Amino acid sequence: MTGRPDDDRRTGHGPSAPDGDHRPARRQGTSVPRRLDIDREEVERGLAGLVLTIVELLRQLMERQAIRRIDQGGLSDEQIENLGLTLMALEDRMTELREHFGLSPEDLNLDLGPLGPLLPRD
What we know:
Subcellular location: Gas vesicle
Helix content: 40-55%
Family: Belongs to the gas vesicle GvpK family.
Low-confidence stretches: 6-14
Number of helices: 2
Keywords: Gas vesicle
Region (Disordered): 1-37
Largest sheet: 2 strands, antiparallel
Organism: Actinacidiphila acidipaludis
Strand content: under 5%
């Protein structure tokens, strides 16, 4: 024994918590709350924002690819029409979902620090 009464030899840890349990005591100022205050709506909104950000990124990539294919002349008029209608419907649905979750287009544009924004600004 080291002569320090707060050593707990049974667990191999240093000082025990004052309430008698044998876990190491926490230092002052570093306590972790036993219960997290989580707002369900805020978590839902955050998750929806993340998913919609990914969908918006993919939508913009598909739109750019479609424009490249149109410019290269690789699509028929019917394919161009179908592609345009599909992309417009997807954009409309994205707008509905953003409004449902109270998100703006700017909310979906993650800041990547030195790389700049994830989505190009129009």
